[in-house]
Write a structure and sequence with these properties.
The complex is a heterodimer of chains A (301) and B (542).
Chain A: H1 2-16, H2 23-39, E1 43-47, H3 53-71, E2 75-77, H4 83-91, E3 97-100, H5 102-111, E4 116-120, E5 129-134, E6 150-152, H6 158-170, E7 184-185, H7 189-198, E8 203-207, H8 208-217, E9 225-230, E10 238-241, H9 245-248, H10 252-261, H11 268-273, E11 280-281, H12 288-296
Parallel strand pairs in A: 1-2, 1-3, 6-7, 6-8
Antiparallel strand pairs in A: 3-10, 4-10, 4-11, 5-8, 5-9
Chain B: H1 4-28, H2 42-53, H3 60-96, H4 104-122, H5 125-136, H6 140-164, H7 168-176, H8 181-213, H9 223-232, H10 236-265, H11 272-294, H12 305-319, H13 331-366, H14 368-371, H15 383-399, H16 402-409, H17 417-441, H18 446-453, H19 458-494, H20 499-509, H21 513-541
Helix pairs in contact in B: 1-13, 2-10, 3-4, 3-6, 3-8, 3-9, 3-10, 3-11, 4-6, 5-6, 6-8, 7-8, 8-10, 9-10, 12-21, 13-15, 13-17, 13-19, 13-21, 15-17, 16-17, 16-19, 17-19, 18-19, 19-20, 19-21, 20-21
The chains are: A alpha/beta (301), B mainly alpha (542).
């Protein structure tokens, strides 16, 4: 807002001092821009927008600050509006380190040859999705979902779409035909439980970690919404790093990985926002199963 | 001579009307009306939204955010329109053929440029935006170009028509003095079409604001982005604040443009015209300056080696180069896409049907000459109230883009083509209502007064007085809006309101590029077919 006001004052002055003055600042600012580009390459981190934007910029802002201290790089968090946009930015090398879900991670790895999953939370080795419903419906198991309205999260989400769809299929439920109308795609986990709570949809599926946080912080009314099914375990979220060594110098990847893995009590505030107490090592192979499921559902060809 | 052709000619308007109504009724069968369409929580959500409508969030923080986003939306629209104007002018002159002679090659050139304009126009700005984001990355220029191309196409075609329709005598006079082709353009054609060109550009400017607002759905800022974020957090009170700002700016621009159009066409100069010129210069300079200095978007950086490589990769992906089984060679994908195309067609017909019905129900009291009683000679005390109320609904309806309507409607109705059709109808009945009310206002009042004074009831006046004289004009507008709706069907699908657009969004998320090519192809065919049918029907109605 302040930026906008300064800009308008500048513009008015410019108009008052007639057109001649217009050329000079143009050149000046261009020079400035070139300078910043040459002197420092910014290490950009991103995250899939699976929760509300304010929350994400708090947690990712914390990580950016921490990484900057540990590695000496200039680190910046770049918000993203949808999952696919982040994958595209990663492919274009505009994002150097990303907090991906299982599916987006697999998409990124298939687009960028040297992309590598380096760290994840302990819980991501055994991640679950939860199916929630309005309490008054009294659903008991996954089969009961038939005939009710239902919403997934984002279509690119692992725990909000891919795995719930897979386990629906495993249980003999056709998501397109057995529910009340076609399933909706809410866009994020937060929105899924809010929509169920508000009564917009009767049932939904979302990320277990987001659900637990929502219950702990009281942002969801458990008198209205309850979990009626939890999926078996699968691998999910991870930090995936781009081919950064050619850009930032040899050893950058290891440095970043080391920094993430050594986060501990001192960084608890940031870790809390990720609902974990540490990050552990992971590798691309862990996600082979996700890739297989995605292929089976025709999401990856 | 048999009487048959005459008979047909006499009744062909009625035939056409019956056929169109039939098609609409047929489209309704696409929805299973027996099942409950509003899903279980729909009513709860409607009440929450309506409650927030009267209690928008006017906290300082939100207001500041709204002002800033309004400016971003406005500046992208202005920047886009400046480029669109240049594109339209150049291509319009070329497509009018006035620079070419009568040889075969010139005619070929002329149709080539006409086709090019048609192509630019056929693809919705949001689809262009998506293509530009894929090749340029998230730069404001992606939004600006995405606005410039389709608007360039729309304006260009009208410019070309205006240039062709210029009276021939002054041109011939210039020609006979030995003026070159460019001199004829400069001193013959341009002075004659200048006012019309400016009027039409101003008229389109209002639409471009709405288009600019929805650019956020590919990740570019502005009012649409804030609306989307607030909807994501289910903060309906914030949503309405941003929508009120959007309505305010659309109404302001509309007032400015209609005032200016009136003054431009007036014989004497008015202070409003130079004032508008200064305002325009300020807006154009301000917008480009903002994009350049504050957004720090460098124009030349767009054409870097890297971007070229990404663009290449993107188009190779679309063409399925190196892919084993591209979707457009796959039978199953085709049958799927054609099914969706069929759904989308029905969605568009339903949408125009709904908006036409609502328009007919409201248009009579919405006309100024009905409200003040000059038309019916029977002023009623409530006429002005209903006039004001309906006009307010029209403004509300058309100021909110289809996409935003769709985002709200999918909270209420079950996913499918019905929410898409309703969202499109909600946006279009306002436009249709306004256009048609103006037709009634321009009506010859004498026959109607006659009916009224001989004691005809309201319904009778409508049936025998108003409808016969306005129907051809109404039909033209309805068909014209149908073309526009067809183009927009893909966009409401992006947020889950069914049809080709929904599949398009899913394929985008899954990076299935060849599927996208196939869907785009089906979409283009649909747009072309609808243009063709609508043009044919309009000619018949005339």
């Amino acid at each position: 807002m302040r930026k906008l006001l300064t800009y308008f004052t500048f513009l008015l002055l410019l108009l008052l001092t007639a057109c001649g003055g217009g050329e000079e600042p143009a050149n000046e600012s261009q020079g400035e821009e070139n300078n910043t580009k040459n002197t420092e390459e910014v290490f950009k981190i991103g995250a899939i927008p699976d929760q509300n934007a304010a929350e994400l910029s708090r947690s990712m802002g914390g990580v950016a600050e921490y990484l900057q201290e540990e590695t000496g790089l200039t680190v910046e968090y770049v918000p993203s509006v949808d999952y696919a946009a982040l994958v595209t930015a990663f492919e274009r090398g505009e994002i150097h380190l990303a907090w991906f879900g299982g599916l987006t991670g697999v998409q990124a790895m298939s687009l960028v040859e040297d992309a590598e999953a380096i760290a994840q939370r302990p819980r991501d080795e055994e991640f679950h999705s939860v199916f929630i419903a309005q309490k008054e419906l009294g659903l008991k198991g996954i089969e009961d979902i038939k005939g009710h309205s239902f919403t997934f999260g984002s279509e690119s989400s692992t725990s909000g779409h891919l795995m719930p769809r897979y386990f629906l299929m495993e249980n003999g439920i056709d998501a397109e035909n057995d529910l009340d109308g076609a399933p909706n795609y809410s866009g994020s986990h937060d929105k899924t439980y809010k929509l169920v709570e508000a009564g917009t949809f009767q049932t939904g599926a979302l990320n277990e970690a987001v659900w637990e946080t929502a219950v702990a912080e009281g942002t969801v009314d458990t008198n209205k919404v309850e979990v009626f099914y939890e999926t078996p375990a699968y691998y999910d979220y991870n930090w995936t790093i781009n081919a950064v060594d050619p850009v930032f110098g040899e050893g950058t990847k290891d440095k970043v990985k080391e920094a993430l893995l050594s986060m501990g009590e001192e960084q608890q505030e940031i870790l809390d926002l990720f609902a974990t107490d540490k990050f552990i090592e992971t590798s691309n192979e862990n996600y082979a199963a996700i890739e297989k499921v995605a292929k089976e559902l025709g999401i990856i060809k | 001579m048999s009487a048959k052709p005459d008979f047909f000619r006499y009744y062909k308007k009625s035939y056409l009307t019956i056929i169109l109504i039939g098609i609409f009724v047929w489209s309704l069968f696409a929805v299973q009306w027996n099942s409950d369409l509003i899903h279980a929580g729909g009513f709860v959500t409607i009440m929450q939204m309506l409650g927030a409508l009267f209690q928008p969030d006017f906290s300082k923080e939100i207001l500041e955010l709204a002002i800033e986003s309004t400016w971003i939306t406005l500046s992208y629209a202005v920047a886009g329109m400046t480029l669109a104007f240049i594109i339209a002018f150049v291509l319009g002159v070329l497509a009018s053929g006035i620079l070419f002679g009568e040889s075969r090659i010139s005619i070929l050139m002329k149709s080539f440029f006409r086709g090019l304009l048609g192509f630019l126009r056929a693809i919705h700005e949001l689809v262009w935006a998506w293509i530009f984001v894929a090749s340029f990355g998230l730069s404001p220029y992606a939004a600006i170009f995405a606005l410039a191309l389709p608007y360039g196409g729309i304006l260009g075609r009208i410019f070309a028509d205006m240039l062709t329709d210029v009276p021939k005598e002054p041109i011939e006079a210039l020609n006979s003095t030995g003026a070159s082709k460019f001199q004829v353009l400069l001193y013959g054609y341009l002075p004659m079409v200048k006012t019309n060109i400016l009027s039409y550009t101003m008229y389109r400017f209002e639409c471009s604001i709405r288009s600019s607002a929805i650019m956020s759905f590919v990740g570019l800022g502005g009012l649409g982005y804030q609306i989307q974020l607030s909807l994501d957090d289910l903060q309906y009170d914030e949503v309405w604040t941003f929508i009120y700002f959007l309505i305010a700016i659309v109404v302001l621009i509309d007032l400015w443009s209609s005032q200016l159009r009136n003054k431009l066409n007036a014989p004497s100069k008015h202070w409003f015209v130079p004032f508008s010129s200064i305002l325009t210069v300020f807006l154009v300079a301000g917008s480009w300056g903002y994009v350049y200095f504050v957004d720090k978007a460098s124009f030349l950086a767009l054409f870097s080696q890297e971007n070229l490589a990404y663009a290449k990769k993107f188009f190779a992906g679309m063409l399925g180069i190196g892919e084993e089984n591209p979707a457009f060679l796959d039978r199953e994908s085709w049958s799927n896409a054609l099914l969706l195309t069929y759904d989308t067609l029905r969605m568009s017909i339903m949408a125009i049907g709904f908006s036409t019905i609502v328009m007919f129900l409201t248009v009579i009291p919405a006309a100024r000459n009905v409200a003040n009683g000059t038309l019916t000679l029977a002023p009623k005390w409530y006429s002005w109230i209903s006039f004001g109320f309906i006009r307010l609904c029209y403004i509300f309806s058309r100021a909110i883009p289809e996409l935003v309507w769709a985002m709200m409607i999918i909270f209420i109705l079950k996913p499918g083509i019905l929410p898409g059709a309703i969202a499109l109808a909600l946006h279009n009945f306002g436009i249709l209502g306004k256009l048609c009310a103006e037709v009634i206002e321009d009506l010859d009042e004498r026959p109607i007064r006659h009916l009224s004074s001989s004691g005809a009831s309201k319904a009778q006046i409508l049936m025998y007085g108003v409808i016969p004289s306005v129907l051809p004009q109404f039909l033209t507008y309805i068909l014209y809006r149908w073309e526009v709706i067809m183009r927009t069907t893909i966009v409401v699908g992006f947020v889950g309101a069914g049809g080709l657009g929904q599949q398009f969004k899913l394929s985008m998320s899954f990076f299935h590029y060849t599927d996208l090519t196939l869907l785009l192809f089906c979409y283009l065919i649909l747009v072309w077919i609808s243009d063709y049918i609508s043009e044919w029907a309009r000619k018949t109605a005339r």
